[in-house]
Each structure stands twice: as structure tokens, then as C-alpha cells.
Amino acid sequence: MIVSPVILLLAGAAIGAAILGFVFQRAGGRALIGLALGAVAGGFGSALFMIPLDYCTFEAERESLDATFGFILVGAGIALVVTPVSWLAGKLLRGEGLVSSTGQPTQGTFKHWWIALPLLLPTLTILAVFLYYPSLETLRLSTMLSRLGARREVFICVDNFTRLAQDQEYWDIVGRTIYISFFIVVLSMGLSLLIATMAYLPIRGASIYRILLVWPYAMSPAVAGIIFLLMFNPSGGMFNYLSGNWFGFKLGWLNDPKVAPWTIIIASVWKSMGFNILFYIAGLQNVPKDLIEAGAIDGAGVVRRFWHIVWPLLSPTTFFLIVTNVTYAFFETYATIDYLTPGGGPLQSTTTMMYRVIQMGVYNNDMGKAAAQSIVLFMMVIGLTLVLFRTGGRQVTYGV
Q: Does 208 fall in a domain?
């Protein structure tokens, strides 16, 4: 599908003008100024991703999937530029400050904005070198046919992404990643809340017991993988030894495609529980005891007091742990998988998206495909996090 860059630029300008014109009209500003500002923002947004790609997705020899991907990039660019401009314009037109000054102390503020720049320079330098540059380099590599150690790279537009969309094996890996991550998050948080509730009870030696519960989190995923390799080894592991002697059967913890994912889930849950327990105990300490006592006086049982008093007050801790556990489940299980089931398990039953990225980039030396898959994984986690903030964040109760 051939689409002229001029048409895309005009379409982006029209969309931006319509949005900013509406914002200016609603806020009592001049609609013509909003139309002009929106046209500039929309036109710039439509070219944000297309200029680096040289509009390659709309070339004559490209398939319809490439053109669809190009339209998605154009829409994303318009949204990335027009949305903050609309928000900023609405704030300024309504006479609202960009940062609320309510309750903000006047001490410690800078009289001139440029005075803060030298103080921020070390942090900005670190971010630029170790965060922004690698991110831009990943975006560049995702459009290249790049082999690790090769001297040359070839620009292939968005082929690394469109091939993923047509790869059924990769979609199976995406589904498997969601499946494993879901059970890691649910089991880890559920068991951690149960253990933290019991550990919070006034018993002798509770502080020592709590420290021991947190210890697994201090171990690296590789060490956790080695520990569970010794326990779940199909031939000489402790679990098969006990199940064989006591119950007369043995499971293929590491060589059965149906059981191996659950071995990864169990090891990952054990590894992350210490972190969750630590935060849940801290959250339980902030629950006012007088509320629990008032509930007991009113005749509420233990379960009812927990569900109607303790659980709502733990919602900020729970919401924070959901986000951190999702990040852990998607990104930090590689070492555990690699030690327990090298190569991604039997029939790739434990191959997750993160494992696939490293497998493709390090072992297959295909940096372009690895970069594209890492961007897909990153966008997937970002999207899931935004959904959590838009849905679960509204249910969070801060304070009594």
C-alpha cells in the first residue's frame, strides 16, 4: 500500500487541530490558536516514528501488514505528542499551575531554574548513558538485520516485528509467559499474605522468625534455581525420592512438558515470597488496632474483621506488590529457568518471552530479532501496568 508522507502529515495535522481546537474551546481560549497548535503537534507526531523509518512501511513492495503497522506507529506518534500538549494547554488556559503548591514548603526551593541543572547533571548523565542511549539503540537494532560480531548491518524496516506477528510459535510463548506469570503473582501474593498474617501474631521469637522468612529474597535467581534443581531432579531429587517411597509414584518435574512450568512457578514463588512478606508485615503494622478491637466488640469474627478492616487498609501495599510481582514474573525468571530447564524446557514448555529474548540475542546471535522481541515485551508490561493503574488503582484506600 502506497501512502504519501504528505497525506499522513495532513491527516496528523487535522487530528491534532481537531483535538486542540476542542480543548481550547472548552477551556475558554481562542479556537484558532488551538487549531494552529494542534496542527503543528499532530503533524510532528505523525512523523515522529516515520521519519527515522523513512516511511518504509508504505512502500510499494510492502504487504498490508507492514502498512497496518505503519498506521499504528503514526497513531502512536500523534498520541504521544498531542496528549501532553492538550493536557498542558488545558492546565494553562484554566489558570492552574503545573505543580500544585498546596502544602508545599517554600524552603529549599530554587530562585532560578538553571541553578538546579548542575545538581541534576550527575543523575541526568547516568540516565543518558545507562538508560536513554541503550533504549534508543534497542529501537535502532529492532529495524536492522544485525548479527552479533558482524561488521555490517542492513536496514529491513519493521520486518522483525511483522514476522513476530506471523509466528505462531512466538504467540505460544506469549501465552505461556502470561500463564506462568499469572500463577507466580497470584500464588506468591496469596501465600505471602497468609504467612505475613501468621508471622505478625505476638509470639516469642517473632523478629527472628520474620528475618528468616525474608532471607530467600536475598538469594539470586540462579541460586534459587540450583537449590530447586537439587530438590526436583527427576532421578535423584528429594521430592521424587519421598513421593516414590511414600506414595509409589514419581513426577517428571524437569522433563515433563506439563509439569516443568509448575516447577518454575514453585521456584519463583519461593524466591519472591520474602519480598512480599516483608511489605505485608510492614502494612499490617500500620493497621490501627483500635479499629480491629472495635470490630471485635461489635461481634465481627476474625475473617470478617480481616475482610472489612484489614484488607482495605492493605490495598496500597497490595497494589504496589502486584506491580512489582508482575515485573518480576516477566523479567527476572530467566536464571531460574536456565538452571532448572536449560534451553527452555522440554518442548519449550518453560520458554518465556524474556528467555526467548536472551536465547535469540546471545545464543542465536540475532540482535535485530532480540531487540524487537524485547520491545514487544516491554510494551506488553507497560500496557499491563497502565491497566492496573487505571483499574486497581481506583480501589486503593489510603488512610482510614
A: yes
Residue 288 φ/ψ region, left for φ over 0, alpha for ψ in the -120 to 50 degree band, beta for the rest: beta
Looking at the structure, do residues 282 and 362 belong to the same domain, yes or no? yes
314 and 287 Cβ atoms separated by less than 8 Å: yes
Answer whether residue 186 is part of any domain: yes
Q: Which three cell numbers stand for residue 14?
A: 487535522
**DSSP-assigned states of every residue in 309-326:** IIHHHTHHHHHHHHHHHH
Provide the residue count of the chain. 400
One domain for residues 182 and 69: no
* 400 has pLDDT over 60: no
Cα–Cα dist 380/41, whole Å: 26
Pick the closest to residue 79 from 52, 124, 41 (CA basis). Answer: 41
pLDDT per position as a tens digit, 112-128: 667 778 888 999 999 99
How far apart, in whole angstroms, are the C-alpha atoms of residue 38 and residue 22? 10
Specify the 3-state DSSP secondary structure of 220: coil
Listed in order, strand segments (DSSP E) in the chain are 144-145, 154-155
* Nearest by Cα to 227 from 336, 349, 333: 336
Distance of CA 346 to the CA centre of its chain: 27
The answer to whether 88 touches 180, Cβ cutoff 8 Å, is no
The label of the residue with cell 503548591 reads 101
Which cell numbers hold the place of 109?
526551593
Q: Do residue 339 and residue 203 come from a single domain? A: yes
In a domain, 86, yes or no: yes
Long-range contacts of 291-294, Cβ-Cβ distance < 8 Å, separation of 24 or more: 291/400
Query: Once rounded to an integer, what is the mean pLDDT over residues 311-328?
Result: 91
Assess if residue 100 is contained within a domain: no
| Residues 90, 179 share a domain | no
